[in-house]
Amino acid sequence: MKKIITRGLAVVGAAAVSSVAFAQEAAAAGPDMSGLTAAVDFGTVTTAILAIAGLLAVVYVAVKGARIGLSMLKGG
Questions:
Q1: Distance linking the first and last C-alpha atoms of the chain
Q2: Global pTM value
Q3: 4 Cβ contact partners less than 8 Å away, ≥ 6 residues apart
Q4: How far apart are CA 22 and CA 47, in angstroms?
Q5: In angstroms, rounded to a whole number, what is the distance separating the alpha carbons of residues 57 and 65?
Q6: How far apart, in whole angstroms, are the C-alpha atoms of residue 26 and residue 65?
């Protein structure tokens, strides 16, 4: 277990260091993509993702409620 945690922390640390280095590089000489990103509307995609997440939340709540109800019927 300790070995897994150590490896996980090493991976997280390496990812953090590389992302900071990449962010500093990109900030120094990054290309201007504002013309491309301004033409794209992500509103409908965001709405669809939030709708799917909401539906999944409803399913999880229903399953949890059913488990609680069944456990009350069993008496445990």
A1: 32
A2: 0.44
A3: none
A4: 30
A5: 12
A6: 48
